[in-house]
Amino acid sequence: MYILFEGIDTCGKSTQIELLKKTHPEIITTHEPGGTSFGKKAREILLNDSLRSKRAELLLFLADRAEHYEEIVEPNRYSMVISDRGFISGIGYALANGDFDFDELVALNRFALKGHFPDRIILFITNMETLQERTSQKSLDGIELRGLEYLLQVQEHMKESILRLDIPHLFIDATESIESIHQSILTYLKV
Ligand SMILES: Nc1ncnc2c1ncn2[C@@H]1O[C@H](COP(=O)(O)OP(=O)(O)OP(=O)(O)O)[C@@H](O)[C@H]1O
Ligand SMILES: Cc1cn([C@H]2C[C@H](O)[C@@H](COP(=O)(O)O)O2)c(=O)[nH]c1=O
């Protein structure tokens, strides 16, 4: 089963994945961008926000996604694979960047994923107060530096995209306690 943990920066995805790895070491965990050796190189470029063209940025995220699917997801299709981010981040951030059409982004991501969208998506939903608090505790990468309002726009696009694509999902209140979220995820995944 291919599962995405999705949400904007600092919403708590990695924290939950680390907890799951401890309680369920059989689960294969990965991430985008950077889940493959090619992806690590792409991540360097992408997180520096050094590309002038938003289309070039999108295509590099899509290349990372295609390589990640081929190298990590497809070979493990009979295991539980949980990815920290995936194509919903791809659509959400690109829509917030402007100049892109939802249906076009869906088609491009379907191509990158060889037609295999994730089986489940868990979207962590945060708010401005929590976003401010948590981003103040870290150094921000190039994309995060686009601002908190931009990130909250991304979050709205992520939510709408999941609903439009009708993919089985769980919306998590990212402001709840770490343990409470962990229990909700265990129940949802039936593990
Ligand atoms: N439920 C929670 N309650 C309080 N703090 C939390 C919670 N979940 C995560 N945190 C804290 O918030 C910060 C960001 O968490 P985390 O790195 O898991 O987010 P993320 O979604 O993976 O972020 P990014 O996408 O930016 O990597 C960390 O300092 C973490 O300890
Ligand atoms: C997969 C993907 C990611 N992004 C953005 C979202 C974040 O700002 C960074 C990744 O940072 P993280 O610390 O690894 O979460 O990249 C994006 O804009 N488009 C995508 O497809």
TrEMBL record:
Its EC number is 2.7.4.9. Residues 5-185 form the Thymidylate kinase-like domain. It catalyses: dTMP + ATP = dTDP + ADP. GO terms for molecular function: ATP binding; dTMP kinase activity. It is an enzyme of class 2 (transferase). Belongs to the thymidylate kinase family. HAMAP family: Thymidylate_kinase. This is Thymidylate kinase.
